[in-house]
From TrEMBL:
GO terms for biological process: 'de novo' AMP biosynthetic process; IMP metabolic process. GTP binds at residues 11-17, 39-41, 304, 330-332, 412-414. Binds 1 Mg(2+) ion per subunit. The keyword Ligase applies. This is Adenylosuccinate synthetase. It is an enzyme of class 6 (ligase). The active site is at D12 (proton acceptor), H40 (proton donor). InterPro entries: Adenylosuccin_syn_GTP-bd (IPR018220), Adenylosuccinate_synth_dom1 (IPR042109), Adenylosuccinate_synth_dom2 (IPR042110), Adenylosuccinate_synth_dom3 (IPR042111), Adenylosuccinate_synthetase (IPR001114), P-loop_NTPase (IPR027417). The gene is purA.
Length: 441
C-alpha cells in the first residue's frame, strides 16, 4: 500500500499529528519535498515534538526516509536528530535514511534568501531558510547533494567551482561576499557527512522493494496545496510541488503504485506570509481562532492569518490531489463561537463563482459569499464517537463531506495524539444534516 498525505489548504493543517497517528499502521514514512521551512508539531504523552525535516512517523517506530525531492539543511537536521536521541527516540540506520540525491541548503542560499527578501518591494513572506535558492540551483544543475558531503574531494571541487558566482550574487544583493563561506563551515559540513554516512540510502529502491514485499508506505508532504509552485497562489508560494502527484517524483515511485491520497483540511483556514486569503478575519473571531488554535508557525513563530473555511479552495484541492479521503482537523477550535460561517462561493466583478479563478490577482479581488450555521459551546476534547458530537458540529462536518464529495475518515478534536475521532464513512447520515433541506450553509 502506498498512501500520500498532503495539506488541502495553505499548510499548517496538522499533518504532524495525523502522520504520527497513521504511521502506527505503516512500515515506512517518507518525506518527498520541501525543506526545514516546514514544521510539524506532535503532542504525545504530554510531550511536544517539533520536527522540521524528519518525518514524524519515527516517533512511533516507523522507518523514516528523506527522499531526493527534499532540500536538506544538514545543520538543523543534526540538531533535530540529537534532540530526538536526547529524548529517548531511537534513530539508527535501520529506522532512518537520507537519499544521497537530496540537495543541500548551503549557507550562501540562506544569505541570498535573506538579502533578496529584504530588497523585494512586493515581499513574499519567505522563511529566509534558503529554500528557493536551493531549488533554483537544482534546476540550474549547480547543486551540492547530500552524497557530495560523503566525498571530500568531490565536495571541494564542486564548492570551489560554485563559490565565485555565489560571492558575486551576494555582492549584487548588497551583502558582504567575504563573509560568505568561511572554511570552518565547509569542515562542519564534511563532518556532518561523515557522521551521517551510514544513513545514506537509495530511497526509490527501498520504497519500491518494500511495496513489492507487501509493506505499507506513507508519503508525507510539507506545506499545503495552495503553496504549490505551479498550482498555488503565485508568487506567494513555496519553491516545490506540494500536491500529491509530487510524491511520485520526489520519492521515485511510479503513479500506478498510489493506493490512496489523504487530504488534511482545517475546520477554518490559516496562512503564513503574504498572498490572498479571501476569508481572512481581522476581528475578535480571527483572534479567537489564532489564540485557541495556537496559530503560530512551528518554524518562524509568526502569527498565522486566520479565516473561515473556504469551500471553493477545498474543491480545487480535491481536483489537484485526487483525494480519496479527508481528515478534518481542529474542529474543537470553533467551540464557543455563536455562529459558524463557511465560504461557499465568491463574488468577482459582480458575478458569483463557486471555484477559484485562475489568477492570483483575481483571487485577491474575490469577496467571499458565506453560509451560516449554528455554533456550539460543548467542549469536544473528550469525545471519541462521531455521533456524540454536538448536532451543529456534526452538521458542519457532514456539509464539508457532502460538498467536497470526499468522505471524512477522521476528525481531530484537540492537539493530543488520542484526541481524534475515527469516522465510519458508511455510517447512517443524520437526515437533518442535508444542505438541500435547510437554509444553513
Amino acid at each position: 500500500m502506498f498512501t500520500v498525505i498532503t495539506g488541502a489548504q495553505f499548510g499548517d493543517e496538522g499533518k504532524g499529528k495525523i502522520v504520527d497517528l497513521l504511521a502506527e499502521d505503516y512500515d515506512i514514512v517518507a518525506r518527498f519535498q520541501g525543506g526545514d521551512n516546514a514544521g510539524h508539531t506532535v503532542v504525545a504523552d504530554s510531550e511536544t515534538y517539533k520536527l522540521h525535516q524528519i518525518p514524524s512517523g519515527i516517533l512511533v517506530g516507523a522507518t523514516a526516509l528523506i527522499g531526493p525531492g527534499v532540500v536538506l539543511n544538514p545543520f538543523t537536521l543534526t540538531d533535530e536528530l540529537n534532540a530526538l536521541i536526547e529524548r529517548g527516540i531511537s534513530v539508527t540506520p535501520e529506522n532512518f535514511g537520507i537519499d544521497p540525491k537530496a540537495s543541500i541548503i548551503m549557507p550562501y542560499h540562506i544569505a541570498a534568501d535573506t538579502l533578496g527578501e529584504f530588497s523585494e518591494k512586493d515581499k513574499i513572506g519567505t522563511t529566509k531558510k534558503g529554500i528557493a535558492y536551493a531549488y533554483s540551483d537544482r534546476i540550474l544543475r549547480n547543486e551540492i547533494r547530500f552524497g557530495d558531503l560523503l566525498d571530500e574531494n568531490r565536495f571541494y571541487e564542486k564548492l570551489n567551482d560554485l563559490l565565485p558566482a555565489k560571492k558575486e550574487m551576494i555582492a549584487n544583493l548588497g551583502g558582504n561576499p567575504h563573509d560568505l563561506f568561511p572554511d570552518e563551515e565547509a569542515k562542519r559540513l564534511l563532518k556532518i557527512g561523515r557522521d551521517l554516512e551510514d544513513y545514506a540510502i537509495d530511497v526509490s529502491y527501498e520504497i519500491n522493494n518494500s511495496l513489492r514485499a507487501g509493506k505499507k508506505v506513507l508519503a508525507e508532504g510539507a506545506q499545503g496545496t495552495f503553496l504549490d509552485v505551479i498550482h498555488g497562489t503565485q508568487k506567494y508560494v513555496t519553491s516545490s510541488s506540494t500536491i500529491a502527484g509530487s510524491a511520485c517524483t520526489g520519492l521515485g515511485v511510479g503513479p500506478s503504485q498510489v493506493t490512496k491520497t489523504i487530504g488534511l483540511v482545517k475546520a477554518y483556514i490559516t496562512r503564513v506570509g503574504n498572498g490572498p486569503l479571501p476569508t481572512e478575519l481581522n476581528d475578535e473571531v480571527g483572534q479567537h481562532l489564532a489564540e485557541v488554535g495556537h496559530e503560530y508557525g512551528t518554524t518562524t513563530g509568526r502569527k498565522r492569518r486566520c479565516g473561515w473555511i473556504d469551500i471553493p479552495l477545498l474543491k480545487k484541492a480535491v481536483n489537484l490531489n485526487g483525494y480519496t479521503e479527508l481528515v478534518l482537523t481542529k474542529l474543537d477550535v470553533l467551540t464557543g463561537l455563536e455562529t459558524i460561517h463557511m465560504c461557499v462561493a465568491y463574488e468577482l466583478d459582480g458575478e458569483r463563482i463557486d471555484y477559484p479563478p485562475l489568477l492570483t490577482e483575481d483571487l485577491e479581488r474575490c469577496v467571499p459569499v458565506y453560509g451560516d450555521g449554528n455554533g456550539w459551546d460543548e467542549p469536544l476534547g473528550d469525545i471519541r464517537n462521531f455521533h456524540d458530537l454536538p448536532y451543529s458540529a456534526r452538521e458542519f462536518v457532514e456539509y464539508v463531506e457532502k460538498i467536497s464529495r470526499v468522505p471524512i475518515s477522521y476528525v481531530s478534536v484537540g492537539p493530543d495524539r488520542d484526541q481524534i475521532i475515527k469516522v465510519d464513512v458508511n455510517r447512517q447520515k443524520d437526515t437533518r444534516c442535508n444542505p438541500i433541506n435547510r437554509k444553513l450553509f
